[in-house]
Structures are given as C-alpha cells and as structure tokens.
Model the fold of this input.
Amino acid sequence: MLHPELKDFLARLETVPATTSIEEQRRVWREFCLKNNHPRPAGMTVWNQALPLPGREIALRWYIPEIEKPLPCVIYLHGGGWVLGDLDTQDTIAWGLARGARALAISVNYRRAPEHPYPAAFDDSYAVLEHVAEYADGLGIDASRIALCGDSAGGNLAAAVCIAARDRQGPRIAAQALLYPVTDTDTTRESYLENADSPLLTLSEMEHFLQAYLGPRRLDPDGYAMPLRAEDLSDLPPAFVHTAEFDPLRDEGHLYYRRLREAGNEAEYRFAEAMPHSFARARLEGPAAKAEFDAVCAFLRHRLHPA
Done:
C-alpha cells in the first residue's frame, strides 16, 4: 500500500490530463511540476548559465547555499525518461540537494529524446562534468569533492558518466547517488509486472521512454546507454542506490547495487518502503518522503564533507 501521506500529492497527479503528442506531454508535466514546486530557502544564491559547446549549448542552473569556498559540488541530472523535464520542473529537487548536501548543486538541462536520442544526453552530462572539473578553481569548486546525483533517467546518466570517467581516465568523482535509476532495458522483471500501472511511472510509459532514447539500440545497448550492461563495474565511485517499493525500476536498481558490490565498490542500498517512483518530488508532503530524501543528502554530505 502506498504511504498515506502521499494521498493529496497523488490526487493532484491524477488531475494531469492524458496526452498523445510529446509536446503536449511535456507541457502538462511542466505545468504540474511548476504548480507543485516549493520556494527556495532564503540565503541561497541561484543563477542560470549557458555552457557553450561545439554545435550546442547546455543550460545549467547553479544553487549555492551559504557555505565557505572552495565548494563541494553535486552535478544533478534530472529524471523524465530522457524526454520530459527541465531546469524549472526540477527546481525543488535541485535546491533540496544543495541545502541537504551543503554543496553547490548544478542542475543540467541535457538534450532530450526523441529529437536527440542516445548518446546526446549522456554526452552532455559528461561534458558538464569535464567543464566543472577543468575550471573548478575559477568557479570556486573543490575538484576533489565533485559528486553526481540523478533520479530515474538522470540516475542512468549519472551511473553511465561514472563508468565513462573511469574508462577515459577523466575527472575524479567523489560519489554517485542514484535514485530509482534506469539501468537496463528488460521490462519483464517482476517489479515491472507488479507495478505496471503504478503512479508516476507505468510499464507503457517506460516502454515509450526506452524507445525514444535508444530506438533500435534498445535490443543491444552498451554500458553507457544502460549501466547494467557494462561488462566491468570495478573501480567506480562510492555509490548510494535508492529504490522504491512501488516502482517498475525497483529490481534493476537493486541488481545494479549488487553488481557494484560484487565488483568491489563501496555501495549503500536503501529501499523506500511504501513509496512510488519519483518520491523525491514529494519530499515536502510528509515526514516519510522527507526521510528518504534526507538519506540521499546524508550520503552526499558524508562523502563531500569527510572531515
């Protein structure tokens, strides 16, 4: 049974109209998210930046709490099936990470599918990591304390960027926090069957998202597209893997945690009992959802403020 404190939140979700086109899907999801956002806390500095790259720009939003420089940094990669979401829809989650982790949070508006299928979102996410690490001193960031955090499709991207940074001898990543991540394309696992019509993510929606992001690559994705398909998961940053009880992605998230541990990595696992997919969005609805989000922030604080 879903946690009763989410009753009002889920009732509001049910008012979101059904749509057929991606444009309409994005519009109604954005409207729902903006209506349910919460004001940023006093004292937090926020601004937008356009990161120019060859042939494109990546929009970023910086959230800086009142802490001393050099700043630890959390690069936040949002969910939405690689199709939905932007800097505004994720604002409450992003400022929550900045405040809870006591770190600069950088929210990334990567290119979205199906207009920009894999590897566009992955490439954008990795490019932001490289930029932050290369210019850390000028940005007031401690390059030894950069973490990645992503939810759902963003968890997929965060995990993939960690693998790529190892493979490419890229920037050092202090930690990875993966909230209900997409790690595979197999939609026949038990959690998919149990939660085929769960709130916030259904089996049919996930099929749509996978097709939009991967197209024909879905049949045989590489490890940067789906981290559970990576042959080697050793030598990766300390990980926090967080899954929800009523979520199609529950089983693949837990399996990814197990493979991280089997490969010799430091990894923590947390199971959000009675919570649906995307529970981070509901963290201000009551103490149970807040406790789940606080656990993510506690992991990041521990890794970014080791003293």
Summary: The mean pLDDT is 97.
